[in-house]
């Protein structure tokens, strides 16, 4: 046998390449790259400095240097909310980490998937009150889904991969990864993908079939049903499935503050936002219903009013991916734990099976609700002091910009007006701090949203009080070419607090005047401040100039635009349910409540 005809000797299998030895700091950056992260927000400091060195060389991860850690946290929230991806923020130890706590708590309340990576002092110094030491894991434990403390470089890839898994699955939320400086400096093999073992973490996605059938049967029998839609529909990317169920059932839909955009405002079945400042039809639809189908909502006090008096004649179907929310405030007749996208498909199928596709007989219910819509449309009265109406300004921003934009509000009156008077047609177009009510959220959240969605117009609709808490992020926007639009609804006061003082404290306006608006010292002058930051700055004091200013903002995309809209301090948010009473006492305007029959 010649060499040419000899049988080939099989080669042994190739050995896997040895995992490269890299520093823990490099492992942080490499892990982010492997997870597909393209943008992070942060500020370097001593305990996180090792990570910032390889971060400088990364071609896949863009770092946006913010001016305050809270701004970085809110930017990560805005990024996550606008895009549906996980937002990432980075800070150093001690005060750098504690400055993130507000944003982390905000993300926890509103179920926003962010990962916060913080540096920690050397493990040998922990517990000694070392310079810039803070127990950030202990501090954030109540407001995170999970917190990791990493003291060994080999654990870094697994901790970061697990953080992303936890943040983005089940009920989304914030996860903290705190890494000691010695772990960042230590050299270890980089193994990817790492083994992610999360014992006990098994989010339920598929609901029990019997519960689905029971819910469908209640829907088929109901004469006064309401689909009570919460932010979970948006977080669960279930808007399309919600639309299908609404069409099948013909039931009225209400969308909470966190769910604006989950169901189109233009749809005939949409009654608007329920709650303390909800529309009269939405508030009374819930209150007088015989069946509430709660979808990713948590019966927040701002929606229910006094919980013991909420919807006294209604049975409740409560759907949520978080079992802890079921029956927490209102006992559910049919509890359903599962992923809303799957549950809504199953519920729609079961409902159509029971009804054979026939439309339900709820004409009497709709006749009542349409009567409320006719009698109590959403509106506002012109201020008597001759200054601009804030509602008009916000409504025109929405009308001239359109539904494809992203709108990020601060907290207070302007937040409610933005939720009421801008029409939302798609999910992820409305960003706000709903659960925590964090002043200072709007500007950095808008910044994060613009990074995530650079081709969309992004408005920050802010109050003169909120704006003064985080406006330094305008510097970040200018330097990093993030051209957001900022509308300051400048009523020269802490507006919502002032409204409550007017209504409930005999008009004693204690420490709510900010001296930024009409007839005041104008400290600061928002136009000069914005110009100092390198923004295009405008001031509008007459309604006839509103549209031109908005159009200028829409046409300017080479830098941020800040518009100081000087409005009346006397404008109030209506409708309103006073705190601690039944929703039946919703006030359409001051001293005006709809007549209703308590026996119904």
Automatic annotation (TrEMBL):
<keyword id="KW-0274">FAD</keyword>
<dbReference type="InterPro" id="IPR012000">
    <property type="entry name" value="Thiamin_PyroP_enz_cen_dom"/>
</dbReference>
<dbReference type="InterPro" id="IPR029061">
    <property type="entry name" value="THDP-binding"/>
</dbReference>
<dbReference type="GO" id="GO:0005948">
    <property type="term" value="C:acetolactate synthase complex"/>
</dbReference>
<dbReference type="GO" id="GO:0030976">
    <property type="term" value="F:thiamine pyrophosphate binding"/>
</dbReference>
<dbReference type="GO" id="GO:0050660">
    <property type="term" value="F:flavin adenine dinucleotide binding"/>
</dbReference>
<dbReference type="GO" id="GO:0009099">
    <property type="term" value="P:L-valine biosynthetic process"/>
</dbReference>
<keyword id="KW-0028">Amino-acid biosynthesis</keyword>
<feature type="domain" description="Thiamine pyrophosphate enzyme N-terminal TPP-binding">
    <location>
        <begin position="23"/>
        <end position="137"/>
    </location>
</feature>
<dbReference type="InterPro" id="IPR000399">
    <property type="entry name" value="TPP-bd_CS"/>
</dbReference>
<dbReference type="GO" id="GO:0009097">
    <property type="term" value="P:isoleucine biosynthetic process"/>
</dbReference>
<keyword id="KW-0460">Magnesium</keyword>
<feature type="domain" description="Thiamine pyrophosphate enzyme central">
    <location>
        <begin position="212"/>
        <end position="347"/>
    </location>
</feature>
<dbReference type="Pfam" id="PF00205">
    <property type="entry name" value="TPP_enzyme_M"/>
</dbReference>
<dbReference type="InterPro" id="IPR045229">
    <property type="entry name" value="TPP_enz"/>
</dbReference>
<dbReference type="InterPro" id="IPR029035">
    <property type="entry name" value="DHS-like_NAD/FAD-binding_dom"/>
</dbReference>
<dbReference type="InterPro" id="IPR039368">
    <property type="entry name" value="AHAS_TPP"/>
</dbReference>
<dbReference type="InterPro" id="IPR012001">
    <property type="entry name" value="Thiamin_PyroP_enz_TPP-bd_dom"/>
</dbReference>
<dbReference type="InterPro" id="IPR011766">
    <property type="entry name" value="TPP_enzyme_TPP-bd"/>
</dbReference>
<keyword id="KW-0479">Metal-binding</keyword>
<keyword id="KW-0285">Flavoprotein</keyword>
<dbReference type="Pfam" id="PF02776">
    <property type="entry name" value="TPP_enzyme_N"/>
</dbReference>
<dbReference type="GO" id="GO:0003984">
    <property type="term" value="F:acetolactate synthase activity"/>
</dbReference>
<dbReference type="InterPro" id="IPR012846">
    <property type="entry name" value="Acetolactate_synth_lsu"/>
</dbReference>
<protein>
    <recommendedName>
        <fullName>Acetolactate synthase</fullName>
        <ecNumber>2.2.1.6</ecNumber>
    </recommendedName>
</protein>
<dbReference type="GO" id="GO:0000287">
    <property type="term" value="F:magnesium ion binding"/>
</dbReference>
<comment type="similarity">
    <text>Belongs to the TPP enzyme family.</text>
</comment>
<feature type="domain" description="Thiamine pyrophosphate enzyme TPP-binding">
    <location>
        <begin position="410"/>
        <end position="565"/>
    </location>
</feature>
<comment type="pathway">
    <text>Amino-acid biosynthesis; L-isoleucine biosynthesis; L-isoleucine from 2-oxobutanoate: step 1/4.</text>
</comment>
<dbReference type="Pfam" id="PF02775">
    <property type="entry name" value="TPP_enzyme_C"/>
</dbReference>
<comment type="pathway">
    <text>Amino-acid biosynthesis; L-valine biosynthesis; L-valine from pyruvate: step 1/4.</text>
</comment>
<feature type="region of interest" description="Disordered">
    <location>
        <begin position="1"/>
        <end position="21"/>
    </location>
</feature>
<keyword id="KW-0808">Transferase</keyword>
<keyword id="KW-0100">Branched-chain amino acid biosynthesis</keyword>
<keyword id="KW-0786">Thiamine pyrophosphate</keyword>
